[in-house]
Structure formats: C-alpha cells, structure tokens
Specification:
There is one protein chain. This protein is about 35% helix and about 25% strand. It has two domains: about 90 residues, Nucleotidyltransferase, domain 5 (2-Layer Sandwich); about 160 residues, Nucleotidyltransferase, domain 5 (2-Layer Sandwich). The chain is of the alpha/beta class. It is globular, with a radius of gyration of 20 Å. Strand 4, helix 2 and strand 5 form a beta-alpha-beta unit. It contains seven helices and ten strands.
Length: about 270
C-alpha cells in the first residue's frame, strides 16, 4: 500500500487535516481547535477518523504540520514520535518551502500564510493575491518572481460578529447565511446583510489596492504607474470564503483545500531530506 501522509493546518478556531496517498487526497476533515489537547488525545481523535475510512493510525508514515497555535506544536510532535514512530515536519525555520519571504522579519509570518502562498504560486503563478477567511482575514501578496512580499490582516467575520453582539445589548447572535437583500427588514436580516456585504466590500477594497501595488512595482521595487492590476489573479480560501466570494468583484477563485495543497507541496520539497 502507498504510504500515507497526514497534512494538518492548526488555526486558532479550526484545524483542517488531509490524508494523502501519493498525489491523491483521500479524505479531509475540519474540527474545532482544542488548545488543551494532549498527544494521546490527538492520537485517539485521528485514529477514530482514520478507522472510519478503513485505515489505521499506524498506516500513516509521515506528518506535516503548519500551526499558528504554538502550544499545540509540541503535542503533535509527541503524537507523531510515539504513535507514528517518525518525526513531524513543522513548517517554519529549517524547512524548505521554495518561497523567498521578503518581509522585515520573515519569522513572524504565519506558517499558514506561507503554505497558502506556496499553493497559490503553484496554481496561478505570480503575481497573485491570496485571501484567507479564517479567525482573521489575511491577504498575502506574491510577486511575479515568486516572492512573498507581505500582506494585510483584518478581523475575521466570526470574531467581528461576536464582538458586535457582545457589546450591543439589543443585538443577538445570528447564524450567517445568504442575506435576502442588502436592505434588511429585520434585525437578523440587517446583521447578515451588513456582515456579508460589508466584508465583501472590505475585501474588494484591500485587494484592489494590493493589486495596484503589485502591478506598479518596477524592477527596483518602487511604485510606478498602474499596469493592468485587474489582471492579477486572486484566490480565496478558508471557512467563510464561499459565503463572501460570490458578492465580491475581485476574487477569481475559491479553493477550500488550498492550505492542504500547500502542505503537500512543502512536504514534497523536503521529502528527500
């Protein structure tokens, strides 16, 4: 049997995992991130998920991990060593990504953003923009030369909605769904409209400005005239992406599995080592 790879992206709110056999993604899962989970608890959780697909935890021969929750990295490493009898690959310093990071402090760029950029560059080429709808909404800019230039970070949809309903006494939490109209006829409808259309407008505004900077950089990195910025491809991922993208003008593609694809690519670039 082809050896199995478990690719895991740990976010502040959700953890997304994918099971690969060669180039084939056999299954993927999204679960709430438990910041207090131990290595043994993680092993039980993944063992249960794998059994449902006809596999055992010991069938997994390698694990690659990206995380924005530092406290969990050690637990995943311990699980990998104890139950898989191998070393987990952790996206960060020392792991080859093939992506030059040109920020002032490359070590502060989240591993998920690096992995997303790797996948987007492989799918679209550069320049391109990645928008990830997670706990925060992150925007990442990749140059025509395949370099990670930097980006922007905005509060996420769920975080913003929770903050609003917590601070406004007469506003109750609503389930996010497609608004019936921009002009809401109820408080719930008005909230849905404001959140979905509001974030769509915010995303368009940031992406348009980011595209102009990408298109307008000359060979010395100085801003020049706008040179067809609307042609720069933009891809979205994350839990709320599909809900918002249909209301935007700038997002060309949606790929909910972009991060897993990026992890697979990073694994392949380090496999021989």
């Amino acid at each position: 049997m082809t050896s199995l790879l478990l690719a895991i992206d740990i976010g502040n709110t959700h953890t997304v995992s994918g099971l690969y056999a060669g180039d084939d993604l056999l299954e993927h899962w999204r679960a709430a991130t438990d910041t207090h989970a131990t290595a043994d608890q993680l092993a039980v959780s993944y063992s249960s998920l794998l059994v449902l697909q006809g596999y055992k935890l010991t069938d997994v021969r390698q694990l690659i991990l990206s995380s924005v929750v530092p406290s969990l990295v050690g637990q995943y490493q311990s699980m990998t060593e104890r139950y898989l009898e191998t070393q987990a690959l952790v996206v960060g310093p020392g792991l080859k990504t093939g992506l030059p990071v040109l920020t002032n402090n490359p070590h502060e760029v989240g591993a998920d953003r690096i992995v997303n950029a790797v996948a987007a560059l492989d799918l679209l080429g550069g320049p391109c923009v990645v928008v990830d709808f997670g706990t925060a909404i992150t925007f990442c800019a990749i140059s025509a030369q395949g370099e990670y230039l930097g980006g922007a970070i905005a509060p996420g949809i769920e975080v913003s909605l929770e903050a609003l309903t917590a601070r406004a006494a007469r506003l109750s939490r609503v389930d996010l769904s497609e608004p019936e109209a921009v002009i809401g006829k109820t408080t719930a409808g008005s909230l849905r409209s404001g959140v979905i259309y509001g974030f769509a407008g915010m995303v368009d505004g940031v992406v348009k400005r980011m595209r102009k900077e990408l298109a307008g950089q000359d060979e010395k990195g100085q801003l020049a005239a706008d040179a067809g910025s609307e042609k720069i491809a933009t891809i979205a991922t994350g839990g709320f992406a599909e809900m918002v993208v249909s209301h935007t003008e700038t997002l060309n593609l949606v790929d909910p599995l972009l991060t897993l694809k990026g992890l697979k690519l990073v694994y392949e670039r380090n496999e021989k080592n």
